[in-house]
Write a structure and sequence with these properties.
Elements lengths: L12 E6 L6 H12 L3 E3 L18 H6 L2 E2 L12 H15 L5 E5 L3 H9 L9 H14 L1 H11 L1 H6 L5 H14 L17 E8 L2 H17 L2 H7 L15 H7 L5 H24 L4 E5 L4 H5 L5
Parallel strand pairs: 1-4, 1-5, 2-3, 2-4, 5-6
């Protein structure tokens, strides 16, 4: 086993580990952090919340001890927290940690949050309160499907790329379209922020069948470890955006009596598989990612740094 000596680096270095859910990102990030004797920043937006542990696959206590993590369960589901908030806090933390380390590790499955740190975020127009209220009224009275139809009419490009099952993202896109009179996608990638550090991205991949089997096994393990009890305790907060996520929203339907438990669990698996597919679609567009097989040895992975 070998490592790149920090003294050979022109700049500070951020190693980013990405890939679909349940593929082994946390394990690889910890190995890299131990190799470089450094710390990890999480860019998994589902793991930000204190009240959500089992359903978001937060690193366990042994993993958290193995390497110091940041942005793991650091806020409450009751606290509004945007991608802009994360970018500012993450860059500030990176600047601070680079005073101590030459290399840092970032890991996560939230492509937009990873991209915010690596490339900055796009600037969008202010949305008046009355437009926000109008969009909220449509959602409350007509449902998500109506908003999706509006988005399809106003911005076909973004409609084809957005997670249409995510009400907050659809509402945000419609708000911008209505407020500006322009497609939401017209505001994307207007600039690329050059960070004062080098970025190396490692992507973990596997055949679809392997990914899906790993997801199904993880969901079964979550249920065994108490996911139902965790979700039941969060029922008072189910209206919050943080809880409108796979693993919880399906169980809320079970608690409401709309679904039986077996169907709810099957829906968690199905929606998680869909989420993994969207993750891969996002990452495949990034040509800077160095892809490695999920079962690669650690020696094979770090050979990337000697290329």
């Amino acid at each position: 086993m070998f490592a790149v000596k920090p003294s050979k680096m022109k700049n500070k270095q951020l190693i980013v580990v990405v890939g679909p859910t349940a593929i082994g990102k946390t394990a690889l990030a910890i190995k890299l952090a131990q190799l470089y004797n450094t710390e990890i920043l999480s860019a998994d937006s589902r793991q930000f919340f204190k009240e959500m542990t089992i359903g978001t696959a937060v690193p366990d206590q042994e993993e958290l001890v193995a390497a110091k993590h940041h942005f793991i369960q650091h806020i409450s589901v009751k606290q509004p927290y945007s991608i802009g908030d994360f970018e500012k806090e993450a860059i500030s933390k990176i600047d601070t940690l680079f005073k101590k380390y030459d290399t840092l590790i970032m890991v996560g499955g939230s492509g937009m949050y990873v991209d915010a740190v690596c490339n900055g975020i796009d600037e969008f127009p202010e949305v008046p309160t009355d437009v926000k209220k109008h969009v909220q009224d449509i959602f409350d009275k007509q449902g998500l499907e109506s908003l999706c139809e509006i988005l399809k009419e106003k911005d076909t490009i973004h409609y084809q790329n957005i997670a249409l099952q995510n009400p907050q993202r659809v509402m945000r896109a419609v708000e911008v379209c209505l407020a500006s009179g322009k497609p939401y996608s017209s505001f994307l990638k207007k600039h690329h922020t050059k960070r004062p550090f080098d970025i190396i991205k490692i992507g973990i991949q596997a055949d679809r069948e392997i990914i899906y089997n790993r997801i199904n096994s993880r969901v079964d393990l979550m249920v065994q470890n108490g996911l139902l009890e965790e979700a039941k305790a969060l029922i008072p907060f189910k209206h919050l955006n943080a809880l409108n996520t796979v693993g919880y929203k399906e169980l809320f339907n079970y608690f409401n009596g709309d679904w039986d438990l077996e169907f709810a669990i099957s829906e968690i698996k199905k929606n998680t598989r869909r989420f993994a597919k969207r993750q891969l679609t996002w990452y495949r567009k990034d040509e800077s990612i160095h892809w490695v097989a999920y079962d690669s040895s650690f020696d094979q992975v770090i050979k990337i740094f000697s290329r």
